[in-house]
Amino acid sequence: MGRQPCCDKLGVKKGPWTAEEDKKLVTFILTHGHCCWRAVPKLAGLRRCGKSCRLRWTNYLRPDLKRGLLNEAEEQLVIDLHARLGNRWSKIAARLPGRTDNEIKNHWNTHIKKKLLKMGIDPVTHEPLRKDEASTEGQATSDHRANNGDGDHDHHQPAGKLEASNVQQEKQETCDYHMFSNDNPSSQAENYSTDESRSLDDDLLMSYMWSETFLDDTSWKFPDTTTKEEYGEFGFSSSSDENTSWLMDYQDFGDGEFGLGCFSKNDINAVLDMADKL
DNA sequence: AATGACAACAACCGCCAGTCC
DNA sequence: GGGACTGGCGGTTGTTGTCAT
User: Fold this and answer.
1) Which nucleotide lies closest to A109 by the C1' atom and the CA atom?
2) What is the pLDDT of residue A132?
3) Which parts of chain A have pLDDT scores under 50?
4) A182 Cβ nearer than 7 Å to chain C strand
5) Dihedral through CA A198, CA A203, CA A205, CA A210, nearest 10?
6) What is the distance between the alpha carbons of residues A105 and A112, in angstroms, rounded to a whole number?
7) Cβ–Cβ < 8 Å for A94, A127
8) CA of A93: nucleotide with nearest C1'
9) Minimal CA–CA distance to A26: which of A52, A6, A56, A51?
10) Three-state SS for A220?
């Protein structure tokens, strides 16, 4: 019989998401959740594959995402975790609240890899490069595409050095993580962020993104409780009060489905402040 | 100003593990 | 037990922005 494709390829849109599609997806998920990603595009009125919707949500639209480049502390943490976990980006991302595996993977490939090579450190083994290796490695990364596709997931661990102890390490990492974790994910990030202004910039970026997404379109009105049952047709208004009051509601929504419950009052207030300014 | 090279990042693809029936 | 299905992961590619010439 064969496996069904994850979506009907015919009529499914690909490529960059438009603001309109983002709005539809965010509104749908915030209103109804995602019982099943496969059903989301249909119910939300999107001509997208469910997988694409999930990716867009987790990598870009999720409100708890930190925007902007990784700061020094985060970068160091990524390097440290990569040395222990290899290319297991989702595991690494799990240790950096507000960061996605895709984001970290991209940052690794475009920034950190080069940085380590420049410092004479092999980004694969995390050990000092021999001089001849360093020169050839350096050339290789001049074209990051060539180096990107090194397919090192399976061969990543140097001589099984890391692989063998991964299980134990993960247990240790969990303990390590709890050392700087508390009940508030946003403050988790702050715990290892030493650059306050950078942190502020990130907050503003996030707020800006949300204000852009939600507030800049006068035709867009946040769904109220009376219209939550209606799929497809969403009305929006430009009132910042109307547009932001739902954030407070969603704060108590529970974090199982969206992670929204993890927002601190500060996060919400930052969005509200930004909305007031607009 | 035009254009080519490179960098950065968003998005897609294929595979795999887990779950359900 | 095994096939169907879904969600998630990691690798790869496409697109856009930036800079140098």
Assistant:
1) B8
2) 52
3) 1-5, 8, 133-206, 208-209, 212-265, 267-278
4) no
5) 170
6) 10
7) no
8) C9
9) A56
10) strand
The reported pLDDT for the residue numbered A19 is 85
Model pTM score: 0.61
Q: Is the CB of A42 under 7 A from strand C?
A: no
Q: Which two tokens stand for residue A171?
A: 């247990």
Provide the token pair at A37. 């990603």
The answer to whether the C-beta of A256 is closer than 7 A to strand C is no
Positions of chain B reached by protein Cβ under 7 A: 6-15
Gap from A56 CA to B21 C1', Å: 31
pLDDT attached to residue A16: 83
| DSSP characters over A135-159 | HHHHHHTTSHHHHHT--HHHH-SGG
Q: How many CB atoms lie within 10 A of CB A19?
A: 12
Closest CA to A250 of A60, A58, A30, A97: A30
- In angstroms, how far is C7 C1' from A33 CA? 15
